[in-house]
User: Fold these one by one.
Assistant:
Number 1:
Amino acid sequence: MSRSARSDSGNGFPLDLAGGDWTSLAAAGDERDLETWAARGLIAVPGAAEVLARFPGKPARLAEAAARFVAGDAARAEEILAGLAGAEAARLRSWMVRPVIDVLAFLPAQKRAPHGLALADSSDPRFRLWTVSCRPGSRIANRPFATLGELIPRGVKPDLIVVEMVEWHMLPVDLDRAPCPVVGFTADYDLHIQAVHEWLERFDLLLVTDTTEWRDVKKLVEAPVVTFPKVFGVRDDLPPLPDRERDTDVFFSGSVFHPYHPDKVRLIQELLARNDLSVEFVDGFLSDEAYLDKLTGAKTSFSFIRHPGAMPTRALEALAMGCAVAVQEGSSLLLYLGESEGLRPYPPGPGRLAQALAALARDPERERRARRGAARVRQLFGMRRVAGELFRAVAMLAALLPGRTRRPRRVAVPRRTVLAQGWLPSGADHETLKRLAREHVRRLPERVAAGEGARATAEVVREMVLEHASVARRVGPRRWGRRFVADWIALQGRLVDAEPDNLVHRFNFVRLAFHYGRLAEIARARRVAE
């Protein structure tokens, strides 16, 4: 039995939230097993509900009802559950029959792919989204250190709190006391672990897209962690595929020459070394129009991401524009599309990607398969469909939750997670980040009085130095006030004096001094480092 299947499933739902790696079960499970199809139904694999209908017994009916609801057939799902007794059937049905589900939603403010979950309320009107963002004109304006009482509109009682990309948002400081299930999706937890770890503990359920992420996040929290790949999508208004010659064999764009992704550089070198492939790549990001134009002129593209099984947004976009695409082995996209739709997996190892792309570019069936794949991606991964399926799946998961699981061990405060680029709080919103740093300073006395003195002081130093470093990047170091950073270096040095065995204080002092200090400060940092 799979680790995601339920050992005591007798008459209950056939999957266990404590297992949660439903992507692996859906991909590698036995086609004859109920659990395999239950997992596929909950992650919105097309046709899963129809297969589940062939299995006998109450667990199969529960799984079929959940799958049909996720797929958008609420009437049939309710009909199935109406004939079933038991607590799980009642909980599942209670979410299905609600005419309105109010969701306090921390989502990217823009209603566009690949992060367009704010379209859920237009996809499925039962979900009424109260979207929280720092972007001007948002339905609910977020701000540093906000509480739930300050964010939830008067008269609104949310049924759910949903956060897309936990690491991108400033969350309410009292999130652990939310009156409803709190569900979050995370993907860049590893990049922002110092800032996000204590927030992950405040969720009742966390979603990730693949097995490698599931293994990581499972170690960080006590709450259930579930794999759900369909979080990202493509524009619903993509232009039709043009009838044009595709002159480029391989096109790729994005962060190519970034020190965090040395493997990408090696892959590009392998491709450029081949004489039988014409390769074009862009180190950076193009406008939507230029990007789509490049894709429609290329025969193939590829995806390479640090979590190989995660949902590759660039592969979705390329395939939607008629490019055949190579993805890493184990990619969750392979649950929804295959080689007949122009999608080919490649294994790790030198030269393997280049071999896969060369084979795709020479395939006489490539054009036909890729056009079929484009139609399929636009159908399955249109942003409105993805948004509706995800929120309906979250409702089903909330019904299956065993109870409150939030057990935060530490006080959580909002922290800056980027220096100059990124999504927090809404792109290049420098004013909000400046307010965040100032709010840390303003709250320092009360945090010291509450016994958080050293930690609170270290966080203030961090926020202020990041803010000044961000300003220096924008206006230039000559206009940057040296005296400000000197004060913060000195304060960090006093923390080292007060707690000499605290490695966090020591590391932060060394880093600050080496980056921004003068000779005397650097000399002390060398002694501290030794």
Number 2:
Amino acid sequence: MSAIKRAKKWWVDFSFRAQRYRLPSPDNSRTGAKAFESVLRQRLTRGEDLIPKEKKKCLTFKEFAAKWLESYVKVNNKPSEIKNKTTYLRSCLLPAFGRKKLNEIYSLDIEEFKANQLKKIKPKTINNQLGTLAKCLKTAVEWGELDKIPIIRPLRCDPEEFDYLTETEADRLLATASGSYYTAILLALHTGMRIGELMALNWANVDFEKRQIIVKDNFSVGVLGSTKSNRIRYVPMTQDLYGHLLVLNPKTGFVLKGPDGLRFRPECSRTSIHEICDQAKLRQIGWHKLRHTFASRLAEKGVSMTAIKELMGHSDIRTTMRYAHLGQHTLRDAIKVLETPQVINLRHNSVTIENLGVQNSDWSKREIRP
């Protein structure tokens, strides 16, 4: 049987490749049911679905962003990254794209967003916002909520300028500091550790036997976690740093303590570094400038960019290359090995015995001519 009538409704009832199909006919007549069966058989032959699937409802960016924050960002990102992505979404991405459906966000919309943001903030910050947008849309593709993402081109950024202390300025800063602040500044200048890594440094990670600091922890937004690059690095101690840490007591818990005897905290450390700068009659700097100082002094002394990258814990050598210009003198020294040694031409030059290194006093005042 193929077309049958049941309770005043025409149905198709047939088998195709050992599979039975029974469906109501959209045209409630015998002729309509037979025509419907013919259409269904053709679809099955072509390997198509009998009934076209309803198009999935496309979420708005605001709807998907809420799901993305809860199910992806908070699960896979560090506290600092969660904070940054949440801030970018609430401050600019949701106001710009929140009401749009995911498949209605086009490259033109993104270019207009960039143009508008450039009136208010720097390209580097805009690129961070675009990175959050791109990751959100990429996840939407992975989760089947979007077919493809629009082209998102980052803005060109000028090389970032950075400030650092000269050796004399660093000595003045250290001479002014005392207590835990002296220890913190000395550590920053001699290891290049980030402020969160300094706050998280535990005596268990100070290896006096091998004379090295094991950098494996970091405090970020009040939460103890791994370092920014998720890697452990080993930084040798200078003699000054080794000698200073050796006499500190007690050697338990965190190395740096705040005024209250508890761990070093960012709210007091920021204020204090500015106060110490004022007392030392230096421009006000932040803790990250001490990290720049560490890398800059290494570059100035000819240390390779690869070694600086490892000591700084950079995941990308391009980040380290900002210090490369500080070691230009080492390039000049390196190229000297290609210079051809100068040969004395006796036909055109007058050479004295002293220049030749002859020690005989009888010849010391004579002159050789061609």
